[in-house]
Write a structure and sequence with these properties.
The complex is a heterodimer of chains A (about 120) and B (about 300). Chain A has about 120 residues and is an alpha/beta fold. Chain A is built from 5 helices and 6 strands. Chain A has a 6-stranded mixed beta sheet with strand order 1-5-4-3-2-6, with helices on both faces. The two termini of chain A are about 15 Å apart. Chain B is an alpha+beta fold and about 300 residues long. Chain B has 11 helices and 11 strands. In chain B, the strands form 3 sheets. In chain B, strands 7-8-9-11-10 form a 5-stranded antiparallel beta sheet, covered by helices on one side. In chain B, strands 1-2-3 form a 3-stranded mixed beta sheet. The longest helix of chain B has about 30 residues. Classes of the chains: A alpha/beta (about 120), B alpha+beta (about 300). At the A-B interface, helix 2 and helix 3 of A face helix 7, helix 8 and helix 11 of B.
Chain lengths: ~120, ~300
Amino acid sequence: MTLAQIVKILDGDFLSSRDHRQKQVHTGCGCDLMSDVLAFIKPNALLLTGLTNAQVIRTAEMADVKAICFVRGKKPGGEVIALADEKDIALLATSLPLFEACGRLYREGLAGCSEYEG
Amino acid sequence: MTDTKEVTRVQELIYEMKVGQVMAKDVIAVSVDSRMSDLRNLLRDERISGVPVVDGNQLVGLISIEDFIKYLADVNPDCPVAERMSRDVKTLYDTDPLIHAVEEFERYDYGRFPVLDRQTGELVGIITKGDIVRGLLNKMEIDYHERETHRRHTNHTFEEIIADKAIFIFQYDIIGSDFDRAGETSSKLKRALGRLGIPPDILRRVAIAAYEAEMNVVIFTDGGKLTTHVTSKEITVELRDSGPGIEDIEKAMQPGFSTAPDWVRELGFGAGMGLCNIKRCADNMYLESTLSVGTNLKFTVNLQ
């Protein structure tokens, strides 16, 4: 699924200054606990989270997460966005709550991390 | 690399890749109001056997060399292409998976399909069987090169050094209690190991384990040192701090056991999963701690 499709499904926006619309993700993971993200997320996944601090970007960097979507209308500060740009991690935002954002993507066919073999 | 493996890769790619990735993007098209006499020059000069007909950016038909021969045989006077083109054109979308294109080529006996943008319906490319084969071959070559570069790079780094045993050592200082900068050390380490040509899956395991370990040092101590040894066989990461120490290592290793303060939990850490994560990522892990003296955590990830 491309990030452009994901933004459309979530009625969301891109926060990154780079163009990430054609980037593809194969799985999604919705989580506010970074240790769980580190333990379970697959490489090249989309992380949906309500946390907006720099550690979310660091977590994504270490675990090769391709894109992060902030839920429930939360947006990180400029420094956090700059860090994500530097690490080439795409940032998205949606006003949907975590459960609904995950639900919509799952319904549209984005696989969960436990389902994807790749 | 065996034949069967490559066949599976092609099968995978045919589902993964999209029409838009392999199609020709600089489409030669004719405007709906151009004439058959213009078309003759175009077919001859460009050596193509069929041309989409457009009205602005919208596809309205397709005119092939067969249409053109029929027109010549009928000895008709010059006329707009619109009069001789086929209007019922089978098209593909740029976001269609390649497998769909392959099926369409099988179903219809056409040499090419115009490709439309799924959102706007505008003509954005054209695809032939040749484009599909080329696209697949290119992608496989890129995959192969990436794998080879990684393999060669790691081997080279060590081969270029003449020694009975070569060891790279990287050392970093971790600043304690500075949550905003936490993770910088692991980030630097990941980049440094990447330069050495460590394969991505191993790099990821080392980075995750190092990051969890670094978070522990940042959360619980005034700082410490991270030292990494890399040989051709393994990567060893060692973190030493002079913090308060761990009271009960066995308890600390239990999933979910945590002594982290609330402010750490609010930041998405401190759920008692750190040490478990490190153990899961590493091939070996060693933890030693003395109360009010400090903690020494060491883990190894095998390269072979």
